[in-house]
Structures are given as structure tokens and as C-alpha cells.
Amino acid sequence: MMVLLGELQDGMCDAVIREAPLHVFTELFMTPMLRLSNDPVKNVFAGLVHDLVLPFLASWRQPCAALAAGGHHTCVVTKDRELVCFGHNDFGQCTVPASLGPVLAVAAGAEHTCALSADGKVVCFGNNEFGQCDVPADLRPVVAVAAGGSHTCALQRNGVLVCFGHNGLGQCDVPLDIDPVVAVSAGGAHTCAVTAAGKLVAFGDNDRGQVDVPPELGPVAAVAAGSHHTCAITAVGELVCFGGNVLGQCDVPPNLGPVRAVAARLLYTCVVTITGELVCFGCIDFEEIHQPPGLHAVVAVAAGTCHACAAKETGEVVCFGHNDLGQCAVPTGLLVATAGSLRRGD
């Protein structure tokens, strides 16, 4: 969901998935849509409908509304629509504006945070050196937001993707001929979007091949942009990663099986399998990102620079890795929201 000098934020969203055709949802990322509801909650957590048949996801409920890990901070949307952030706060990336109000989703960049409010507006705070927090005044109602190293992307309800902030490598240059977008992820200095047809489009920094989408990839259900690599979940649940692979962040385990969520960061990748297992690979030893034992029933994952966070079916948030700035110090009793609780407002 994840983004630093390649930080990318990946928050996963709540979803109820039924038998074919199935609707796939991811955070940071949300996933594909062909039609939109007037209900902003449905648009964020069940909107962007993509008619991909995913038999491996026959039936499960993912109770995570929004979970995001930035450079050295973490943000969570609670069941009462409150945004809570903790960790590094030198740039105010954890100082949630008092006037923010109810929140549906959150994206955490390297040193900035963006929240999607219940009325479809985007509010960003933290480091604004490159204008990554300067939300365009003419932005239409938004259904998804992604935060990169120093840039931000907002997906409007009409399928138009708008990116702003640092654009030194073209990470904000949305292709003019791109079809309506249904999902977006922002990496260190590149951006990835999924169209309504399931096509993955990537643009921006390509120093490691992170925007060279494999021609044989096929329809995509979700995407995560890391610092210098990209990972996509295909329509059949297969994980495909490409780009920088110096420490194995693109070496998908051979027996991984279908996955339902993915998060990418500087030098590692984490996924949630359809059985609720969390699997991380890449530079996890060097970064000391060792997941605690007994971590099961996971529905969402977010990757920070040197820390990762997982949301369990119960709503519990578990963070692990470096905690030198409090990025893993989850407040006692904190529970991540579900789509159901957001609709009810309880």
C-alpha cells in the first residue's frame, strides 16, 4: 500500500466475495470497477467492480477497511471512521487534522499521509516539499488514494486518475490514452494503475524495469508498487513480480499458491494467501522484518521501510520489524474498520 525512496503504501479493504463473477477489492489499493454506486462506502469497499471470475476466492470476508504503512509510520482507520497514525512524525505525517471528520481509507507515503473522507474528498498532511499534499482544488469525488515516495494519486469516481507531487521521473504523467482506471498504487517514483478491463499500466521511474509490464501478464485484479519493483495479482490469484530484484523481492515462492492481498516496499514483498497466511520475501533478514509466530487469519498487509503490519479477521492490527520511531507501537485496543462497520457508522 507502502512508499519511500521507494515507499509505497498498501492498505487492503474490506470485501465480501461471492461466486463468479467475483468482485475483487484491495486497498491501497481498491480494485476494478465497471459501474459505481452513489454510496461512497460502496464505492470504496465494493465499488470499482471488475467482472473477473476468481474461483479460488469462492467465499470469504476481508474485514479490513484501511491499513497503511509509510516510511516510518503507520495509519489505521478504526471502526468508528477515525484515523489513527503513529510512528515518525517529524513532518506531521501522524498529526491528523482535527477537522478531518469520518474517514473511509488512508494511504501512507514516505513522509506524508492522505486520507479519503466519507464525502469523497482527499486530505493530505505531512511533508509537502514537492506538493504531494497539495490536493487539486478541482478534484472530483474520489474513491481511492495512493501515496508514493513524494507523490500522490487520487482515483476519481469517473475513473479518471489524477497524480500530483514530485514528477521528476514522470510518476505523475498519467497516460492520456489510458482507459478508465479502477485501482492505483504509488511506488517510490513510479505509479501503477489497473483499468476496467484488467490491464496493468505502469509509468514513471523504470531504472530497474519496474514499469515494464510483462506482455503475457493477462488480466490483473490488484497491484502493489514498491520502491523499484512491482507486484500484481492476476485474475486467477497468481502473484507476478518484476523490476528490481537484487535481494529477492521479486522471487515469488514456488509453492505460494493463490493470494488475495499484496504489499511491496523498498526491498521486500508481503502477501496474504487465500488461507490467511502471511508470507514475506526479499530482504527481510537485513531489514529485520521477522513476523511473529502464530500470526494466522490475516486479511490485509501493509509494508513500510523496515516494518510491516497485518490486519487479522478480528480487526486486530499486528506490526513487526523496526520500532525505533514507534511505527510498530499499535495503540492498545485499536481495531481496524470493516466495510460493514463503516456503513453502519458504529
TrEMBL record:
Keyword Kinase (UniProt): no
Protein's name according to its UniProt entry: HERC6 protein
Top-level taxon in the UniProt lineage: Eukaryota
Alphabetized Pfam families for the sequence: RCC1_2 (PF13540)
Alphabetized UniProt keyword annotations: Repeat
The RCC repeat ranges on this chain: 81-119, 120-158, 159-197, 198-236
InterPro entries per UniProt: RCC1/BLIP-II, Reg_chr_condens, Ub_ligase/GEF_domain
Keyword Repeat: yes
